[in-house]
Amino acid sequence: MTYVLNRLLSVILTLFLITLVTFAVTNILPGDVAMMIMGTQSNPEALEGLRESLGLNDPLLMQYGHWVWGMFTGEWGNSLIFKKPIAELLLQKAVASGIIVVMSMVIALALAVPLGVWAAVHRDKWQDTVSSSASLLGVSLPDFFWGIVMILVFARWLGWFPSSGFVEPSEDPLGTLQRAFLPSLALGLGLMAHLTRMTRSTMTGILSQEFIRVARAKGLAERTVIWRYALANAIGPVITIAGLQIGYLFGSIIVMESLFGYTGMGWLTYQALLNRDLPLIQSTVFVIAAVVMVTNLLVDLLYVVIDPRIRLG
Amino acid sequence: MKDIVSVDHLRVEFATDGGTVVGVQDVSFTIAPGETLCVVGESGSGKSVTSLSLMRLVEFGGGTITQGALNFTRADGSTLDVAAASAQVMGQVRGNEIGMIFQEPMTALNPVFTIERQLTDGLMLHKGLSQSEATERALDLLKSVRIPEPEQRLKQYPHELSGGMRQRVVIAMAMACEPKLLIADEPTTALDVTIQAEILALINRLKRENGMAVLFITHDMAVVAQMADRVVVMYQGRIVETGPVAQIFENPREDYTKALLAAVPKLGEMKGKAAPERMRLIGDEAARAAQAPRKPRTAKVLLEVKNLTTRFPVKGGILRRTMAQVHAVEDVSFTINVGETLALVGESGCGKSSCGRSILRLIEPTSGEILINGNDIRALNRPDLRRARADMQMVFQDPFASLNPYRRLRAQVAEPLQNFNLASGADLEARVLDLFDRVRLPRDFMNRFPHELSGGQRQRVAIARALALNPKLIVADEAVSALDVSVQAQVLNLMMELQEDLGLSYLFISHDMAVVERVAHQVGVMYLGRIVEIGPRAAIFDNPSHPYTRSLLSAVPIADPATRRFEGDMNFKPISSPIFPLGHQPAKSQYTQVAPGHFVLQG
Amino acid sequence: MKRRDFLRNSTAVLGGGFMGLSLPSALWAQETPVSGGTLIWGHSETTQNLDMHQTGTASSGRVLQNIHSSIVTVDKDLNVIPGLCESFEVAPDGLSYTFKLRPNVKFHNGAVMTSADVKYSFERCKDPATGAVNFEVFNNVAAIETPDDLTVVIKMSAVNAPFLSRLSENGAGVIMPVDSGPTQGTNPMGAGPFKFVSYEVGTVVKMARHDEYWEGPAFLDAVEAREITEPTTRLTGLRTGELHMINDIPLDRVGELQGDATLQVKTWFPLNFDFINMNHTFEPFQNPKVRVAFDMIIDKEALMQGALWGQGATTPSPSFPTSAAYNKDLKQRAQDIEGAKAMLAEAGYPEGSLNIVFKATTNYPYHIETAQILVEWFKMAGVNLTIEQLTWADWLSQCWVDKDYQMTMMNFFSLWESDFLYYSVWNSEGAFNYRAIKDPVIDELTAKARVTVDDAERAKIYQAVQKQIWDESHDIILWFRNGTIGAQPAVMGLDTVVHPNGSNLNFHKVWLKA
Amino acid sequence: MKRFLTTKGLIGIVLLLIIAAVAIIGPMVIPPDAATAMDMTARRAPPSMRHLFGTDQLGRDMMFRVILGARTSLEIAVSAVVMSIALGLPLGLISGYFGGFVDNVLMRLVDTLLAFPALLLALTISAVLGPNIQNTIIAIGVAFTPYLARIIRGEALRVAQMPYVEAARASGTTDGMIMIRHVLPNILPAVIVQGTISLAFAILAEAGLSFLGLGTQPPAASWGLMIQASRDQLDIAPWTAVVPGLAVALTVLGLNMFGDVLRDILDPRSK
Question: How is D88-139 classified by DSSP, letter by letter?
Fold first, then answer.
């Protein structure tokens, strides 16, 4: 329990640092939302009026204090471009992104674990080379490349999945999953490469341990030894590494969601950045950072459940 | 009656990047029912490869049986050539007709499964038991290996058990299907001496009760003497000598066996000798010649440790505050005279290493005084401490980890000299050469990297490095524990020779009573952070007065098949935890003097 | 009546002669429109703020113009014509405007439009607290009077000749029901052909037919504007049949789609005009010879073919092509690299001595392509041009506001009204004079035009302005860019969809063939 | 003696040698204009004898672009990785070696940076410094630093607990010298392996940055920019993605294969 509280405290401290950095970074960015709203229609006079009405002329420290206090009290303010309460926007988009983050993680793990185990069992043989070359190819081309390939193959040529868009799960749950599948697959493939490598090296370490030899000496079938005895030990580290990829995933969804017109957190972040919607940038970045940290926390806690050794220590 | 096992001209090869390496060749032996065969040898002798071949587990390590037969008499009386058996047949044999236990109890159990699951899966597989029947049988097994509270253990995970208990579980697993042959591969090497005694006694009892044969693999001649009916001595993948245990120990035929036996310190063989003595190693004429002249011992005190206490904080809670303390070293006092050796002996976790490190302030002591030549080490600031450390050097246990793999040995030995600007250029080169000579290493080793040396050679380099600053005191922390017995003897002799030549003092930290008896002038026995008994070596070994010292000595295997110690069940008091809540004030160490200089902890 | 309106509108649009349709236009003319169906439109941009007053982006306007109706609008030549008013009248002194409203115009909430709604809408737009982007349109408005339910009189404190034209633009002239302001951002409401149904940020805007629309109900039951910003994805959606139509076909794909018999492609111009800007505070560009030489380096037709894949038409003037102000006498300078070299040398910049940074925004990928082609020609002329890519926000901040650039290019969608165009872009006092152009001739001419009442006279003045811009080569005017739409064959009435301003899309007359 | 030049390693070295040769010799034999020369009559031409690797949307020869782009891409990737190592190494080394408070503070900082979308970081850097190659290198270098610092810290922590470090301390070696003589050489292999992997990511990161206009500025060629530009024409001109993609893939493959060899070469144990 103290372990949990401890981790929580460090998460809170980091979150505070994140608010500071976010605020600083977003304020360094030139241009503001007033300029973005008016576009080429902007002239000094009009800009000034708009700025005033958007509250962009307050002193920085006041804006920061206002923002942090708002985050605490649940007053997240309104998005300047979308004219909607940020909290409402984020909640809706977080669900959308949650779906593809989880789905891509499931796809990645479902592919990476067997592939990694296979490579570890046949270490330094051709199977290993095939597995590592496949994962290298995965990381050699950017996510969006795979995204476009998915659209062309599965939407345009095969017509199995819709090419883009997002529907609310409450409206059409199947439709939501259909639309989430292609971006998840593209993200999952990129993620898989990394996880395969990690599974392989973790499994390699575990397979050289004494208890594996003991299991074999008991007469257990090789299948049982690898898929029960060894994998039960590998799953903890692999999940931890997978959890650490959440941060990477939240970076990748920015491009991927925009590509698929799948409007989740990544898309929202990109829109906020492009439109210099400072309150929205600050909140999305903060929420993404918080989600990343909390996921890592949860993964750590999950590890405690999976691995009995951690419980006492 | 038919032999259980008959190995005939076994040859195992390993494919490596550098080509094919022969693991063992021309190995032949038999094991009769109910017999214990010990295979003994130093590292690289091929003893483990032999045992793994019998289980056909050697394949998983990249080995291939390229020649020979491994005939095993199955339960139905038929003979199976293990070398040619199918994977399916091997699955029936392994764990069912042949049980196996391994060296590392800490890693031999799957950390994420309960004891119950690990005990029952073999039973369900081989004996077709239901889950509940298997659990019942598992409970019986735990009882038969004398694990306390067996019902509770079934639900526990391996990490919740001590090392000794884990090894009992591993034995229970191996015994689950009542095999006709038990292969024990260094089953006690990683264990403390009292636990080793318990496990050896347990194996003996189980063997008697079940009438099974045992193939016992070990490097320890003392254990061989205690366990074996017959002995196979192996060296570099071949069998050197085979024979009944008495014959091997009393009348060895082969030079290698003789040399091996000569290198084993036997507990009690120093009885009546006043000073430490180098071992008489076969082929080490230098040691023999240098035996005679001795420097007269002076009673000048070099190191005085008074009430040394070292505690480590156990941090916890939200604010990472110290919640409890490990009382690693608790109110320890002793002195070491110039040119003498004080051995600190005890089992793992007793605080002997922490004590050694505290003296060098590699870890910071909590309280107490450390005076070297009257100079208070604890009062020094960092620069002064750095200078003071020139007088005290350390040799570590693991010869593989104590040298930087990325630096040439010349640089590593020269480093202390450069640190204090004691030498440079040609002078430095000369000093380093001299040090290599001193530790009897060829001069051309200077340009080598650590991995190019054997364990014993590396330990010599570590000693040379420690000697570079002409220290007065060397703390040798399990300095010979990781070495093969013949190498251990050589290094011990070297250390004793250096002591004689240079008047060095040693704080010799060890768990091995037989080695301690060889090298020490004074012995301190540590238990739970305290010295429970301290005095001249003879006093401790001849008249052990503290109960702990006595049990420790009774547990040591003696390299003499005539004195067998581990027949009945042995049960020693388990060591309790040295962790105490914050603010716990332990009592002062009070000693009773039982003889001049021989003190025993009260209470 | 409806049928007649329909025909009139379509002829009007066709009359412009700027429309191109890949299907023979006779085909649709023979069909009888049917009601029903939901049109799924793949919209190229994201709708942001639903409040018509507050939203400044063309993207939001494109959707919201279907929900709102404006008091006045424009015909194909951008002449102001009545919208929600039956007629309007400007006092001779230009200080008073009288609007006669159409009777029985119904808002989406069922209320009938009155002069109070007009007064409310204009005052809301004028109020700085509203944050309307066009609030300065009402700068000179002194009072809004409503003598009766169908009459609105606007009193000006000073003459503002472009007032009516500005009212016809996005936002400023729309009429909202009284007191609907606070909910306009979440539930926009007006008197347009479609009612707002729902909006999911970044995903879709749904609209349904307004049965009591003053020009008659639309054919479509509903319109779904799905927002798909990625061009390839949008194109795929059209090809797979998920979308009925898309706007903004990537220029390089227009040819490919036109060759596809299963799809309709519609292009029109002008969507906007593009020009290359030279910063007049940058020393070399203070010399007109350098500017003219730069103009001579560029082969505009080749550049248009290269960057727009032929989807446009070159022009020496930025005026709306069919407007009276357009100076038809001007011709773009032909490419003459040797002549440009000589002129540059004459100006004191021999070969290799000019190093220019060209800032282009990634917001318009064809600007980047343009810049890349320019680099090659400038290299031939001995000028070293390097490109710096900027995001839209950075471009606005660096080039538009801070004037921190040497060379750049930009396009304008909606500056078709001559005063708005020439005064704000080229007058030294102009709000959009981000090149810092100070030309006394232009200053004088543009000021004079403001007080010139006679339309023909004014047009002449603006033609003179265009000549001056060309003579001095203040900017290099490049082309009008085409607008594009791609659609399934079932989508009918595509020719009515484009608003005369070239940017807005109106679905009133669009229908789906069963 | 271990044979460290395995077939795999040999392939890796050959691949890298070819790529390096192309990157170095290419610009010497091919005129610099070849990468930007446009042929408007052959836009998006598929591979043919005239244009072996086809052309892009402006009719530029993909073969010349991919060859001349090699140098830019590798220059950016190598500099960015070197920079992230230069920043991350001291950070991780100090954090891992000293532990305690210093470690806590530094790792909290690293955690904070890791939680940030790299895009925001890159955008800020590009906005503040302007888009050019140096700033691209800075953006990638800074974004990679926390990852490297993390890995280096872990390694330093492990090495700092080795007996030879304790032995060095016992023989009077100062902390600074211990870090240089003992910790650094022992963590270097891990750093180098991580570095080779990071190189691959850096090449791709440049593609991501050109999404925002940062990175190589057109019309100059770089693999990242080329892949980015292929985005809208993947279906009609797949070679525009395949050619630079293959170049990246081969480089990554070569680097990975070579990484293992390099580790062996550096390790005295394998000699």
Answer: HHHHHHHHHHH-HHHHHHHHHHHHHHHTS-HHHHHHHHHHHH-SSHHHHHHH
Q: What is the CATH number of the domain that holds D179?
A: 1.10.3720.10
Cβ atoms within 10 Å, residue C158 = 9
Q: How many CA atoms lie within 13 A of C267 on its CB side?
A: 20
Stretches in chain B below the pLDDT threshold 70: 1, 17-18, 283-298, 316-320
Q: Read off the pLDDT band of C8 (50, 70, 90).
A: very low
Q: How many residues does chain A have?
A: 313
From the CB coordinates, do chains B and C have 3 or more pairs under 8 Å?
no
Angle at alpha carbon of residue A160, lines to A159 and A163, rounded to 5°: 65
Please tell me the total count of domains within chain D.
1
Selecting from D58, D126, D218 the residue whose C-beta is nearest the C-beta of C387 gives: D218
Dist. CA C334–CA B434, nearest whole Å = 90
Question: Domain for residue D34, yes or no?
Answer: no
Q: H or E segment at C219?
A: none
pLDDT given at position C355: 95
Cα separation, A88 vs A65, in Å, equals: 22
Q: Give contacts of D119 with chain A, Cβ < 8 Å.
A: 251, 254, 269-270, 273
Give C414's DSSP letter: S
Element (H, E) at B355: helix B352-359
Residues 6+ apart with CB under 8 A from D152: D88, D89, D91, D92, D93, D96, D187, D190, D191
Closest residue, chain B, to D1 (C-alpha): B18
Residue among C477, C188, C137, C179 nearest C304 (CA): C477
Per-residue pLDDT tens for A203-229?
Answer: 988 888 888 988 998 888 888 899 988
Please check whether residue A305 touches B, CB under 8 A: no
Q: Is there a domain that residue D57 lies in?
A: no
Q: Which residues of B touch D173 (CB under 8 A)?
A: 415-416, 419
Question: Is any Cβ of chain D less than 8 angstroms from the Cβ of B21?
Answer: no
Mutate to test the interface with D, among A6, A7, A14 (most CBs of D within 10 A): A14
**C261-276 pLDDT, tens digit each:** 899 998 888 888 999 9
Q: What is the pLDDT of residue B285?
A: 57
Q: Which CATH class is domain A86-306?
A: mainly alpha
Check: CB of residue A105 under 8 Å from CB of residue A249. yes
Which residues of chain C lie closer than 8 angstroms to A93, CB-CB? 201
Residues in Cβ contact with C454 at an 8 Å cutoff, skipping those fewer than 6 apart: none
User: Using CB atoms, which residue from C128, C229, C242 is nearest to A163?
Assistant: C242
ipTM: 0.79
Residue D150 covered by a domain: yes
Contacts of B125 in chain A (CB under 8 A): 218-220
A contact residues 241-280, partner B, Cβ 8 Å cutoff: none
Q: What pLDDT is stored for residue B435 in this prediction? A: 92
A interface test, pick of C43, C48, C421 with most A CB neighbours within 10 Å: C48
Query: CB distance D218–C371 less than 8 Å?
Result: yes
How far does the CA of residue A247 sit from the closest CA of chain B (Å)?
A: 26
Instruction: Determine contact, residues A135/A171, Cβ cutoff 8 Å.
Output: no
Highest mean pLDDT among A199-208, A216-225, A276-285, C327-336 belongs to C327-336
The mean pLDDT value of chain C amounts to: 87
Poorest-pLDDT segment among A142-151, C60-69, C210-219 = A142-151
Could you tell me if residue D143 is inside a domain? yes
Q: What domains sit in chain B, N to C, each tagged with a CATH number? A: 5-262 (3.40.50.300), 301-601 (3.40.50.300)
Interchain contact, B121 vs A220, CB within 8 Å: yes
The larger pLDDT score, comparing residue B323 to residue C106, is at C106
